[in-house]
Amino acid sequence: MNTMDDELKQESSNAVITGENISEENLNDEEELDFYDFLEAVSDKIDNIKNQIEERREHPRQRLRRTIAELEEQKRILKSQLEQRIHIWSENFKKPNFIRTRDKISFSIGVANACFSPLIAGRWPHILPLVYTIQALFLITLRFFIYKRKSWHYFVYDLCYFVNVLTLLYLWVFPSSKILFTVCYTLSHGPLGIAIVLWRNSLVFHSLDKVTSLFIHMYPPLTLFTLRWLLPLDLQRQYYPAIVQIGSSLHTKTAVFYTVVFYLIWQALYYAFIVYGRREKVARGLRATSYTWLLADKDGFVARLIQKFGFGGPNDGINRYKIVFYFFLQFGYMLLSILPVCLWYYRNM
Questions:
Q1: HSE-up of 90 (CA within 13 Å, CB side)?
Q2: Is the dihedral of CA 315, 316, 321, 323 positive or negative?
Q3: pLDDT, tens digit, for every residue of 71-120?
């Protein structure tokens, strides 16, 4: 019996020892696993740090190329969206409903201008700048989209539109600028006013294009003339102080000088962005401009004058000599047209 008890005690003690050994082995395995996980985590962290360092050490040109590529992609997406919208608008412009609506708008604007513009100028001259502004924003914007559909939108960069922009800036942003008023007054009464005759602008009520063309050339001089000669003196002092102050400080030579400076600014921008910047599209006939239209008119005055001076015949195409001659001719026209305006204006101060 004692022997059996001793055997049981021995077995139990062996079991305890065996259990302890097993638990110690498990602990050792867990410690080894935790250690390996720790090493793996540290290794991953080191790899991430190395990758970040390599990215930061990346050559600036490569980063610049990647940035440019991303910007080009954004530009492509925006251009695609814009072209899609313009295509939708162009399709809408062709619909009979839109054509009828357009004719109604042009007829209404033409009749209203013919009837009410003289009345407003004589009875309520202070309202005329607002009337001009509303119509200018509507008609010029509408013309841009219509011309865009026909690839004629480079016409919108001509001098007459530049003068309209300057006039709007004077009316609403810089009413105290004597220089800006003088430039707007001389350019609107000179080149724009005479262009009504030269370009044969006519008031055709059912033609939105003719109504817009006449408005662009007629309304700036009408508005500025009204402000100068028909607006009461107290309103001039309050809203357009440059008109009151201009007589004692700005004279004919100064007026001609500033007008020529602004004209040359427009001419430089036009050459940079249209003649040079878009030369490939213009040369391939993808875009129409005022100078290509005049130079291509074989029976026109400009083409005949160029041929007389020996810059090429009517079948020689458009070359740089013709373009330069055309710009000099346009500059001479501008200069001759503003001289009487300046002399007449200051003579009647």
A1: 12
A2: positive
A3: 788 777 877 766 666 666 556 555 666 567 777 777 888 888 888 999 99
- Give CA angle at 199 (198, 203), nearest 5°: 115
Residue 70 lies in a domain: no
Q: How many CA atoms lie within 13 A of 182 on its CB side?
A: 28
SS3 percent helix, strand, coil of the chain, rounded to 5, is: 85, 0, 15
Q: What is the per-residue pLDDT for 115?
A: 87
User: Angle between the 320-347 and 178-187 helix axes, to the nearest 10 degrees?
Assistant: 110
Q: Is residue 278 situated within a structural domain?
A: yes
Q: In the chain, how many domains are there?
A: 1
Q: How many CB atoms lie within 10 A of CB 217?
A: 23
Instruction: Name the nearest CA neighbour of 183 among 256, 129, 251.
Output: 256
- The reply to whether 73 falls in a domain is no
User: What six digits make up the tokens of 237?
Assistant: 């002092």
Stated pTM of the model: 0.72
Give the Cα separation of 294 and 300 in Å (integer): 7
C-alpha 49/C-alpha 63 separation (Å) is: 19
Domain limits for position 235: 97-347
